[in-house]
Structure prediction request, 219 residues.
Amino acid sequence: METPPAGRRVIKGIRAQVRTAVRVLECGGVVSLPTETLYGLAASAQDEQAVERLFRIKGRPRNKPLPLLLADPADISKYALDVPELAARLVQRFFPGPLTLVLRSAGNLPQAVTGGMKTVAVRVPDLWVPRQVVRDLGAPITGTSANRSGMPALTSAEAVRTHLGGDIDYVVDAGRSPGGVASTVVDVSGATPVVLRVGAVSRQEIEDACGTAVAMGTS
Prediction:
């Protein structure tokens, strides 16, 4: 198992919590775990029934795709087609980190994850906990924020238990998420990159990395 970076406080029992979360996900459960931005709701992205349950818990519209959390940038090619040069620049600059990229889907994910669209959103978080869960599970996990749709995002395990504890199966408690701001979402599936949501990475940072202007859209 990957170890946390030196100098970061390790919550007592966190490795055991990761193992428990993986077992719950393997059985079709829904868990909450921290990222460097917010606490997220995770189901195995290859388990359609678990993903459907996550939609019900969150109250998320079925036509709104779910982002994937991956363990390593090299895994992007498993789920996306024809990664363009601009996307590769963003991956090199910001992965792992608080940036989500929308790419052409390889078509090997349940429709519930992609919302029936021909694209997929991927992110490699800059926190070892979700990456280790993905590695041990052997599948990507969903990376939507741990909150009811339309409600504020949550940054601690205690808040997740208060708001969602009765509906989800397990919460990995690694303390408060340090970022508190959602990831920036950039659509690089077309000829021109489009920022769908400005979050922890600014539009200027995206343009600097791409070496070109980017358009603004809506997620």
About this structure: The chain is about 30% helix and 20% strand. The chain has a mean pLDDT of 93. The two ends are 35 Å apart (CA to CA). The longest strand covers residues 99-105.
